Amino acid sequence: MLEAVSERLQSVLKKLRGEGHITERHLDEALGEIRRALLAADVALPVVKDFVARVREKALGQEVLTSLSPGQQITKIVHDELTRLLGGEAQPLRLKGFPAPIMLVGLQGTGKTTSAAKLALFIRQKLGKHVLLVPADTQRPAAREQLEQLGRQMGLPVLSTHGESSPEAIVRNALVEARRKGFEVVVVDTAGRLHVDEELMAELERVAEILQPSELFLVADAMTGQDAVRQAQAFGGRLKLTGVILTKLDGDARGGAALSVASITHVPVRFAGTGEKPGDFELFHPDRMASRILG
Ligand code: GDP
């Protein structure tokens, strides 16, 4: 993931570290290359401009150029700014209430249902909590069947919703059942559509009102680049998103969405989907990602 930008940034910084003395002109050349690398990775222009300006200001302001190892210090500045860009400090999962409700929203095909199951598995295995999966899409029986199948495959219970007519009824019932049976967390997979529409948003608002989720995640496909960022803006305009689950990072060689979603929408990436297998799912650590990019 993010191979291209990673390669280019590494090569610029390596060159800088090779220079014993760095002039302002050297720095500006390097920043020009960083700017091009980020733009080529499909990072939004205002984000790139701000990034480069901050690195330049820090490098000039901290007497980095006259220090003994200017290249190394600039590498550190780029690392810190990249971490900030990716959302700063990683946040652990917030689980409030009994059961703690987690709600997933997103467009069809982004990996929402797969991520619901992967997240439930993560909560079961890493946090040791009893978790119930809840299919709350009453329009597409296939979505419910898919979640049931994933539940069977991962050994996770899925709420039976046969006969329920509305998502609101499903989630009300889910909260009651979870409390009655001792499930500490419910992970709710909501309806998806091909495009953002009013009917969907109104439904999701009603579901969120009932659930009062302690985490409300938008699932977005990293491969769709700036579209993923636009989805975060659209969903974030109607729902109090607490994070983004960015899927298919394994296939995204460019990385524009990962690099700009947090700074444009102020909604941090919290989890990353890195493959099709149940375990291909991890907490998103901005600093580790920055280190990975810079090699
Ligand atoms: P939904 O319509 O949003 O519920 O999407 P699905 O959960 O059905 O996922 C759509 C496709 O994306 C499926 O083939 C998944 O296996 C695949 N998928 C989901 N997450 C990832 C991921 O992180 N990496 C890869 N490579 N594929 C993924």
UniProtKB/TrEMBL annotation:
Domain of life: Bacteria
Protein EC: 3.6.5.4
Keyword terms: Cytoplasm, GTP-binding, Hydrolase, Nucleotide-binding, Ribonucleoprotein, RNA-binding, Signal recognition particle
GO-annotated biological processes: SRP-dependent cotranslational protein targeting to membrane
Domain SRP54-type proteins GTP-binding: 268-281
Primary location group: cytoplasm
GO-annotated molecular function: 7S RNA binding; GTP binding; GTPase activity
Catalysed reactions, semicolon-separated: GTP + H2O = GDP + phosphate + H(+)
Any one GO cellular component localisation term in the record: signal recognition particle
Sites where the protein binds GTP: 106-113, 189-193, 247-250
Subcellular location field: Cytoplasm
Domain notes from UniProt: Composed of three domains: the N-terminal N domain, which is responsible for interactions with the ribosome, the central G domain, which binds GTP, and the C-terminal M domain, which binds the RNA and the signal sequence of the RNC.
Oligomeric form and interacting partners: Part of the signal recognition particle protein translocation system, which is composed of SRP and FtsY.
Stated family: Belongs to the GTP-binding SRP family. SRP54 subfamily.
Summary of the function given for this chain in its UniProt record: Involved in targeting and insertion of nascent membrane proteins into the cytoplasmic membrane. Binds to the hydrophobic signal sequence of the ribosome-nascent chain (RNC) as it emerges from the ribosomes. The SRP-RNC complex is then targeted to the cytoplasmic membrane where it interacts with the SRP receptor FtsY.
Name by which UniProt lists this protein: Signal recognition particle protein
Gene: ffh
